[in-house]
Write a structure and sequence with these properties.
The protein is mainly α. 71% of the residues lie in helices and 0% in strands.
Length: 82
């Protein structure tokens, strides 16, 4: 049985900030160890995960509230900037 996602935009913004913080921390450690493009790879992986979760939850890309599609777009932009 599917769990009903929380559709609060503040919850999504907090979740995105937490994921970005973890992504930057892990990418910083990997960069210190010698991997140059760790941020790009992790951001692409996070974007793909958000797309899978959005599809699984049946979310529409053009909804009024923030959701996994918006997170996927943010992580895609981070990957393009890296």
């Amino acid at each position: 049985m599917r769990r009903q996602p929380r559709s609060s935009s503040t919850h999504v913004a907090q979740r995105l900030g937490l994921r970005l913080a973890f992504l930057l921390a892990i990418a910083g450690v990997q960069t210190a160890m010698g991997s140059d493009n760790a941020l790009v790879q992790l951001a692409c992986l996070a974007a793909a995960l958000c797309i899978v979760l959005a599809t699984y939850n049946g979310e529409r890309p053009a909804a009024a509230a923030l959701h996994y599609w918006d997170e996927a777009c943010c992580f895609g932009l981070v990957a393009c900037l890296g």
